[in-house]
Write a structure and sequence with these properties.
It is built from 14 helices and no strands. It has helices spanning 2-12, 25-29, 36-63, 65-68, 86-104, 109-127, 135-154, 161-186, 189-195, 204-227, 229-235, 244-260, 266-272, 274-306. Helix 6 runs antiparallel to helix 7. The protein is globular, with a radius of gyration of 20 Å. By secondary structure, it is mainly α. It starts with a helix and ends with a helix. It has a domain at 1-159: Tetracycline Repressor, domain 2.
Length: 307
């Protein structure tokens, strides 16, 4: 029984649940950090997305089991390794999706609809979109956008265009980094293509160019957001702009490590690279302080400087 439980947890890939932290962004950016009800509503959405993601991961592993056996890391996954039957894995995926639908019922219809679109997008990705160059990574980025949109709808705030732009461009960047990590791990193009056919179209030069382009767009997107009149008026300060160096360091380090092949997967990079973790922690802490106390922070610092 213990072995079965362990395999069930492995199938669900709980390490990847960290991606659903995006659902919480609207709570912070809408200045509702002190609202317990908002956190509660967002928490249900996070739980629903964690369960739905796990269900989708299992379906993906079922369809990719033969190709996963060609990957040095993925070949140890329970389905690829033959440790779990296809029927058992499929049953777990369905249970997780049912639990996700029950969790999302504690939010509202709009949030539930977004979760439904997310699941359909993931199934479309598994069944064919992941084999279409460029569209595969666009689908990954849109999955994160849907998470952010669900977070906004769950707490009843408007979906900001900036939320879409910043989330999409940053996650597009991370998606191409993921492809570069896969290409580095699998080596030659023919071997990489056997595991993931779309990698035959992604040359190292093309991926480097796309990563560089998306990194630049993501940084510029954040720069424009932090200096926009609406942002300055909402937070009462221009101080978001001054977190840019930390954000740039985190993005550039992520790109550098992905291109160099230091880690096999972006999730591994996030969990293991201490300088990246520190940069993200500093940036998030600064963002929270500025959003929460921005209206008071700038006048207080001005008085301090004045004497």
């Amino acid at each position: 029984m213990k072995v079965n439980l362990k395999l069930a947890v492995q199938l669900a890939r709980p390490r990847h649940w960290i991606k659903n932290i995006v659902v919480l962004f609207p709570v912070v950016l809408s200045m509702r950090m002190g609202d317990g009800a908002a956190w509660g509503e967002a928490a249900w959405a996070v739980l629903a997305f964690c369960l739905a993601c796990s269900g989708c991961y299992i379906f993906n592993d079922i369809f990719d089991r033969e190709k996963d056996r060609l990957h040095p890391q993925k070949k140890t996954r329970p389905i690829a390794a033959g440790l779990v039957s296809l029927g058992g894995a499929g049953a777990e995926a369905l249970v997780l999706l049912v639990l996700a639908s029950l969790a999302i019922a504690y939010t509202n219809i709009a949030t539930a609809a977004v979760l439904g679109v997310y699941v359909l997008l993931q199934l479309a990705y598994t069944l064919g979109l992941k084999h279409l160059i460029l569209l595969d990574v666009i689908c990954i980025a849109l999955g994160f956008v849907l998470r952010a949109v669900a977070g906004a709808l769950a707490i009843g705030v408007a979906v900001s265009p900036w939320l879409f732009v910043c989330t999409f461009t940053l996650c597009l960047f991370m998606g191409f980094c993921k492809r570069r990590c896969e290409a580095n791990t699998l080596g030659q193009a023919d071997q990489a293509g056997r595991h993931r056919p779309v990698l035959q179209g992604y040359t190292p030069e093309l991926l480097t160019h796309l990563i560089t382009l998306c990194a630049g767009v993501a940084v510029i997107g954040f720069l424009l957001y932090s200096t926009s009149p609406q942002t300055v008026e909402r937070f009462g300060t221009t101080y978001l702009l001054y977190t840019l160096p930390v954000m740039v360091y985190a993005v550039f380090r992520f790109a550098m490590l992905s291109i160099s092949g230091t880690y096999m997967d972006p999730t591994e990079l996030i969990f293991r690279d201490r300088p990246f973790q520190l940069a993200v922690a500093v940036w998030v802490a600064a963002m929270i302080c500025i959003v929460r106390w921005g209206h008071d922070l700038q006048p207080a610092l001005a008085r301090l400087v004045a004497g």
